[in-house]
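Lecture 7 notes: from sequence to structure.

We start with a single chain of 235 residues. Read the sequence below before looking at the structure.
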Amino acid sequence: MSKSVLILGAASDIGLAIAHEFAREKAGVILAAREPGRLEADAVDLRVRYGTEVTVTEFDILRTDRHDAFLDGLPALPDVVVCVVGLLTGQAELVMQTNFNAPALMLEAVAARMEARGTGSIVGISSVAGDRGRASNYVYGSAKAGFTAFLSGLRNRLAAKGVQVVTVKPGFVRTKMTAGMKLPGPITAEPKEVGAAVLAAVERKRDVIYVRPVWRLIMTIIRLIPETIFKRLSL
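Now the structure, written as tokens:
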């Protein structure tokens, strides 16, 4: 692989895992995060370990008024753009903004540039939580449902334009964001698995992937539960 990849939300465990997978294939990597100073040591590690070009840049996805300026300020439009930004809990408006509104607006700006160029891959990290609203995390889930629908529409709009759009649904992942949660081992992935799945999805031109395939079956069953029964469940 001789590509360049921009990772939005690169300070996350999943973001760094994706960076390692692409860097291993000699892709140039741009790590974008609100606090880029936190990523300098990781950038050095990636350069030394894989012998590829790695840069770090500041980016706050919530500053939607700066999205275009950020993209215009890059040396070149990357071949691949991965959005890993996410917020599991917190004030409802912030959860909505972080998981849906801001990422959708950013990837819309990316899409316009890739469409004009005629090539590129866009990867959005969504969630199985968006497959059906659950009482325990319906704000987060609804934001991810919106993001999943956005990616689906974007994929269909760009299908004939030479631009790939991938939706990634990791399921449970052992990260800082899920620290303290009781995670079911057999269906919980490691960040490295997500990174490898993202790279494979881009290379194989996939559309929608569940990092662990068992999640496709699990969520199919959950979606089929009648609402009268579902609302009595503690999910």
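The domain at 4-230 is CATH 3.40.50.720 (Rossmann fold). Keep this in mind for problem set 3.
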